[in-house]
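EI: anyone free to look at a 302-residue chain?
SC: sure, send it
EI:
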Amino acid sequence: MKAFSLIPKLLCIQLVLMTPVAASEFAAKTSEEEPQSLLLSFEDDGEDDLEDEEEEEVAEEEELPVTESEQEQPATLEYAQEESSAPEYIQAESSSEDELEEFPAYECESEETPAPCEPMEKSCPPNWYFSVKPGYYYLTDGLMRKFFDNGGFTIRGEAGYKLWGPLTLWFDGGYFQKEGHALDGFEKTNLLLATLSLGLKGIWSWNDYLSFYAGAGPRLFLMMLDNDSPHVRSNDNEIGIGGAFDAGFWVFPIPRWKNFFFDLFADYSWKTMQVDPDEISSDDFDVDISGLSFGIGLGIRF
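SC: here you go
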């Protein structure tokens, strides 16, 4: 019985003796495991930090255009709001280079300096005009009509310059030639008539399609008369100054070509040439070369 009662005591003593050894072993085991766990934790933390940095760099690279545009947009909006009240030419100067190339500075005009009007517009009509006027020259003297069968073809070139309002300075040159015959005979006679005119006329526009003009001025006449008859002088060359009266209409048939026009004209030349006494026939007579020319010409304003 005593022996059985000692067993628990011995077990207790053994446990007491074993506790320092177990404690030391447990401490040794924990001392060996802690550095390894710390190193593992440090390594894990380093790898996590590297992964986080890489992810942040990728995110920055992906988000870089967005962030720049987001940063620039407010600035441009504020700049546009500040410059909205400025004049157009200032905004053109502050725009980009591409916009400056599309809208160069010399094309910009302020409101104070109006753009020059084009010649097609009514506010700035052309000052010059030129026309070619073919027509028929009708001799107004009855005796001359018998010699030259009433008249014949004539052509005239005319130019003018606008002075003020409807008042226009005009000058022209004309040419007429006709072959006739002597009275009660078959002898031929030839008349050549050249003219130069300088005068003033008024041109009034009724609408975009029709204008009226009328004018007058002195006209220089050069007459060359050749006769085949043996009873009169063979050649008469005379120069004199008479009068010119001009009137007509300008018709603009094509709206797109407002400077081209048809000239419906009527022109009257007034002159009687004083011919020297004929040494052969001893007859004194004057030659009335007055006549009315009319026709349709073509002209242009510029």
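EI: The two ends are 153 Å apart (CA to CA).
SC: 👍
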